[in-house]
Structure formats: structure tokens, C-alpha cells
Amino acid sequence: MDDALLDIRGAQPGTGRRSHPAERRLLLAVCAGGVAGGLCRAGLARSLPVGVHGWPWATFAVNVAGTFLLGYFATRLQERLPPSTYKRPLLGTGFCGALTTFSTLQLEALELVRNGRALLAVSYLAASIVAGLLAVHLATALTRRVRFR
After folding, report:
1. Residue 109 to residues 59, 119, 133: CA-CA distances in angstroms?
2. Over its length of 149 residues, how does the chain's per-residue pLDDT go in tens digits?
């Protein structure tokens, strides 16, 4: 059973065992990061609305920015800083996980296809994947090159 699955009282479903306070703090870190990432994504989506025939700039931007940040956080927190219990779940899993959105990317691509824009949909999917991979590679390379005090 996954230790991350807890009910509202802090007990693991079906076990009757209470979770350790550290497990609850870990879940709280993921949730706090998720709220912040989700709010950032929602704010950008509202500021960059897209029509049914246009390039989905908001989703493209948050996915590329999120992969860049994930590359930075993963490299910085894993390789450059002393181990921390809550920074990776807060920033990586929570914030970057909620900021990026693979499901919206899929829905927008399908909507483009339904509106007769199949070439744009394929371009959008390809550009999102390539830009995301380049962003995480760039962030990792830059983080490894920079000397932090």
C-alpha cells in the first residue's frame, strides 16, 4: 500500500493505523505547492485566452516554464543543496506538478483536430514535447554550471 494515501483523519485506509506527523507534513507540502502552481496556471490561462483556432499559448507557456523549473529544482535540490524532506515535494511534485498540465495539452490538441486544424495540433504537440525537453536540459545544465555560495 502506498504510504502517501491517507484519509482525512491521517489514517491509512483499511489499516486503522494513524499516520506519522512527518507524513502529514509531507502531504501538506505537496498540497501547498499544488495550490500555488494551480493558481499560477489559472492566472496565466485567464490572461492568455485562446480561441478554438489558435495556438494554446497559456498551456504551452506553463508546460515549458514548468519543465524548466522542474529541471532547476530537481538538480539544485538533489545535487547542490543538503538533503531536505519538504522542498522537493513542495516545489517539484506540488508546484511544478500543478503548474504543468498534460491533460489540458491533450484536450487542446483534440479540440484543434475537431476544428479542422490537425496540422496545428500536431505542431503544438511536437513543439510542446521538444520545448519541454530542451527546457529541462537547459535548466539542468545551467544549474550544474553555476556556483552557488
Report:
1. 11, 10, 19
2. 444 554 444 555 566 566 677 788 889 999 999 999 999 999 998 888 876 678 999 999 999 999 999 999 999 888 866 677 788 899 999 999 999 999 999 999 999 999 999 999 999 999 999 999 999 999 999 999 886 55
The rounded distance, in Å, linking the Cα atoms of 21 and 23 is 5
Residue 145 in contact with residue 74, Cβ under 8 Å? no
Q: Is 108 exposed, middle or buried (0-12, 13-18, 19+ CB in 10 A)?
A: buried
The reply to whether the predicted model has a pTM over 0.85 is no
